[in-house]
Design goal:
With about 400 residues, the chain is an alpha/beta fold. It is built from 13 helices and 15 strands. The protein folds into 2 domains: about 130 residues, 2-Layer Sandwich (Enolase-like, domain 1); about 250 residues, TIM Barrel, CATH 3.20.20.120. The strands form 4 sheets. The chain has an 8-stranded parallel sheet. It has a 3-stranded antiparallel sheet with strand order 1-2-3. The chain has a two-stranded antiparallel sheet with strand order 4-14. Helix 6 links the parallel strand 6 and strand 7.
């Protein structure tokens, strides 16, 4: 079997809001086709026009090869070898950043393709199942401009998540920093009171996490704030500091008792080694597309296992990434949860409509996938509609 063609779909929600801090409004979806009629799909959380350029750019010299050109004619079953070929062949242009994120979409599609070709779910080819089910958590991110509305919405969404059967939820608490939503502002006292109100609402047995989305400028500011959250029994606090502040992460992770999670923006295992060994985080969060696909995410998970760290993969895209995270979790014994944005708790049309046959939660857990590959398929009507919306902005 040989790879014959790679299609790149740049997608945009027709109702996108450039003022919203949500990458769920656009997407790059790739399809890798073969001479035997099989096709694999993948996506990545990166500006889709940039990713398409990374994939379709022609080769110009031996260390600046085009990603698509390197794959045409190759055997798609050699997934891990192809990752290494793409990484080395694009090293002068890539090594990190958008090129790696683009490789992530391609690698995800290759895993899907290999699973379909061999008639097995992806996790069986990642080492096999290590658990009987996967536990999801609901990501709760109200997009409102006043803190009173935010607090009310967050409380309502937390109650809804629990009523839907979720056993865990993550509160996106971002009244400051680069992810500050729609001019939202709150004092630290108001933030602490809101987290406490949610904890009281959902009860002590419900697992709570808090994502502040790089909201603190330094370790001292962070430590002053989150020490007031210790009594809320949080599973983790996510991305409290800028990604490159490894010394700050080490302080925050070791000078207070709440576990610290990070990694959603990182590309390759090499950046994660820095975050784990120098940043001293306790919860490792590879994003399947951004880190470099399932191949590189699995390598990160293996490194986390060596260090006795917990894995909770990050995702903020569509059912494609949800499926990829589920397969990674199934093959990863130290993966405690996967991020799961249910259609009923999000505004993204891409998230709701792009794929069919996506994984579902039953009684608070996601059963192990049984279909070959990732187990999801594209909704062609939605794909066409989102493609047309993207064409209009260029």
């Amino acid at each position: 079997m040989k790879i014959t063609r790679i299609d790149c779909h740049v997608l945009l929600d027709p109702g996108y809001d450039i003022g919203a801090t949500s990458s769920a409004q656009d997407d790059i979806v790739v399809e890798i086709h073969t001479d035997q009629g099989l096709t694999g799909i993948g996506e990545s959380d990166v500006n889709p026009w940039i990713a398409r350029a990374c994939i379709q750019a022609p080769s110009t010299h031996t260390m600046g090869l085009g990603l698509a050109e390197m794959l045409i004619g190759e055997d798609p079953l050699r997934v891990e070898e192809l990752w290494d070929k793409l990484y080395v062949g694009s090293a002068m242009n890539g090594r990190r950043g958008a090129v790696i994120h683009a490789i992530g979409a391609l690698d995800m599609a290759l895993h899907d393709l290999r699973g379909k070709a061999l008639g097995k779910p992806c996790y069986e080819l990642l080492g096999g199942a290590t658990k009987s089910h996967i536990t999801p958590y609901a990501s709760l991110q109200p997009e409102v401009s006043s803190f009173d509305a935010y607090r009310a919405s967050l409380l309502d969404w937390a109650a809804t998540a629990k009523s839907l059967g979720f056993r865990a939820a993550k509160l996106e608490v971002t009244p400051s920093g680069p992810y500050r939503h729609k001019g939202l502002h709150a004092t630290q006292k108001e933030v602490t009171e809101t987290i406490g109100a949610v904890r009281e609402s959902v009860g002590p047995e419900f697992t709570l996490m808090v994502d502040v989305q790089y909201g603190f400028p330094d370790a001292d500011t962070c430590l002053r704030a989150i020490r007031d959250w210790v009594d809320f029994n949080l599973f983790f606090v996510e991305t409290p500091l800028p990604s490159d502040d490894l010394a700050g992460y080490a302080r925050v992770a070791t000078e207070q008792p709440i576990p610290i999670a990070a990694g959603e923006w990182l590309a390759t295992r090499y950046e994660f080694l820095e975050l784990m060994d120098r940043g001293k985080i306790q919860v490792v969060q590879p994003d399947m597309g951004r880190v470099g696909g399932l191949t590189e995410a699995k390598r990160v998970c293996d490194l986390a296992l060596d260090r006795k760290l917990t894995v909770v993969p990050h995702l903020w895209k569509t059912g494609i990434s949800i499926a990829a995270a589920a397969h990674l979790a199934a093959a990863t014994p130290h993966c405690a949860f996967i991020e799961f944005l249910p259609a009923s708790l999000c505004a993204s049309a891409l998230r709701k409509e792009l794929v069919s046959d996506e994984l579902r939660m039953i009684d608070g857990v996601v059963p192990l996938p049984v279909r070959p590959g990732l187990g999801v398929e594209l909704n062609r009507e939605a794909l066409s509609r989102f493609s047309r919306a993207a064409e209009k902005v260029m």
